[in-house]
Amino acid sequence: MWENAAPVPPPQAGAKVRRPKGSAGTEEDLVLWGQIVLCLLTIAVVLLARLMNWPFLPMLRVTWEKVMQPEQEIFLTENRNLAKFTEQTAEAVAEKVGALLNRAGNTATAETAARTAHGKAEAVPSGARDEAYLPGFSLTFPLAGHSCTETSGYGWRTDPMGGSGSDFHLGNDLAAAQGTAVLAAADGVVRFAGKHSSYGNYVRILHANGDETLYAHLQYLFVHTGQTISAGACLGTVGETGNATGPHLHFELLHKGIRYDPSEALQTAA
Question: What is the distance between the alpha carbons of residues 189 and 205, in angstroms, rounded to a whole number?
Answer without folding.
Answer: 6
